[in-house]
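Side project, low priority. Logging it here so it doesn't get lost.
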Amino acid sequence: MLLDSSVFEVKNVGLGEGSALPVGVTVPWPSATPPEGWLKCNGAAFDKLKYPKLATAYPSGKLPDLRGEFIRGWDDGRGIDAGRVLLSIQAGMLEKHRHPVVANDGYDSKEEWELAAIFRRAYTQGKGLDGTSAGGTLIPSPTLHTRGSIGNTGGSETRPRNIAFNFIVRAA
């Protein structure tokens, strides 16, 4: 769904002169062109003499590049994302997780076990070559399969559902 940017007028949304929003605040904007007094957060350098209040918020004279990025709240001592500093960039990451590998006995049964369990348990099914099971050992079997596959679905990144907005910053 695309939003019609023609319905947004700066005077109607309180982003113009006299705005209650302080210089340096970043907001999502539903249009490709920011309103007067605002700049795109596209990593560009800005004139610190022309925008002295903005230079207070961004002393480097460069705006953050938020194109295609998500903003994350600063940890500020909470311990969820310890060690981060304001305006720092963080690479993507997947949380550590497991994909169990299962094996089956190769017969027409529907029995499957996690591979780790095969090496831990004593089995009494008697399906090994010698028809016995010994505690904590694996009975060799020409039909015991210890291979598996892990499904690979998805794309080139991990992301939540989202809507594209232009991040802009109040410059004056």
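Brief comment: Strands lie at 26-29, 38-40, 102-103, 113-114, 166-170.
Revisit when time allows.
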